[in-house]
Amino acid sequence: MPARLRALVTVVCAALLGALLSVTAAHAESRTVQGGRLDWGIKSSFQSYVTGPIAKGSYSLTQGAATVGGSAFRFHSANGTYDAATGAFRAAFTGGVHFLGHRTSAGSHQLDLTLSRPTVSISGSTGTLYVDVVSKAKDTGAVTTSRQVPFAALSLGGIDMRGAATTVALNNLPATLTAEGARSFAGYYTAGTALDPVSLSADVEASAPRKEKQPSGTPSPSATSPKPAKTSGGAVRDGAVDWGVRRTFREYVTGDIADGEWTLSAGAQDGGALFRFPGGEGTYEDGGLTAAFEGTVRFTGGHGLDLSLGNVRTVVEDGKGTLYADVTSPDVKEKRVPLVTFTAGELKPAGGLVKVTEAPAKLTARGAQAFGGMYQAGTAMDPVSLAVALTADAELPALPDLGSEPTASASPQPEKTGADTSAAPVAATTDDGDFPALPVSLAAGALLLAAAALVAVALRRRRARPAASPADPDQG
Q1: Mean pLDDT within 413-430
Q2: Which segments of 242-393 does DSSP mark as H helices, in order?
Q3: Which of 17, 249, 424, 462 could form a disulfide with 158 if both were Cys (CB 3.0 to 4.6 A apart)?
């Protein structure tokens, strides 16, 4: 082959190969998962056992976890990565469930189990659910804390995880307890036990363009960002109170009896298992805090249910806190009612923030009246969290992020005999013009065919070129 022809083929092949590699690399990049929810009941029969007549226990929710449906817990704020080309997916969710049962005469509990921070990892056709576990052994009472235990094996049932565009949504994945999970479950169940199915929906961010490296010696933004100024007191620049009122009350409102709902106004926000009252203003001085917040939540339903709580205020003195609200109901219309008290502890600024995180709260006598006698004074209500900013650059904790409302979910399908996989559902619909990366073997074949075609054309033209006389008109 002449040198000129070889050079032509080399250039064309290099160009095609470069384009192929750039497309493959673009589709092989992991994209960020940010926002979403995971619904999982752990094991419904275990819930019934804990709250039933034998264990006589209960469960509580932490870190913004919620209840959904008949027996599922909702974890929030998905964070992780997803590769649309391979289908690899890994996302951690925030929230926890604390089970207590078999109370002893000393006030402790023989059954004491906390499961939190569920993380789903999927690679190929296999999936695993990891959780943080704090458990007490049934026989010895020894407490064990384990991080990210491979708790359950997930069955994808032929789901193709590739090609999702903006959302990865999976519905009712069968979950089976692993050997590690059985040990962490304090021996209540054996490996291979079927757990409640897992459903999730997670938002996937669009691929971001690659950032160019900064020249040597250029300071990064983090290096030049000012640190929050230290302060011991002063005016509250911003703030928020997070409070879910009471989980069982919310379930009553939306349940079959009241068949009601809640609505938010004046800036209040819904975080799934809690309501956020923002716009804090007030003062902090020497561990004491007085602050007012915006927003109103109104509960309505059957049997005369109509309760509004708004203009929330908090006062903390000597480590003890009180949450006030204006109350409007058919029987009560009163401002600044002390609804609950909570233990705030010693308040100290850190990073320009003063925070109280999930402080246990109890209903006051006047709070019991506000609820129409539904609960007695001293009843445990949802914990209170609050944060106030004392500097302009201090950032408040993020509200639980449930992600986009899922529109379609892939569910595991029964295994088929034979090799027909045409009906296998994908993880989510693709609506942004993405397309799967061309398999390398197929692309390589296409590249060779293109090169061969170019060579054939070039040789044909070379044979058709006259040496010293005009070409025969019959030559092709």
Answers
A1: 40
A2: 247-254, 365-370
A3: 424
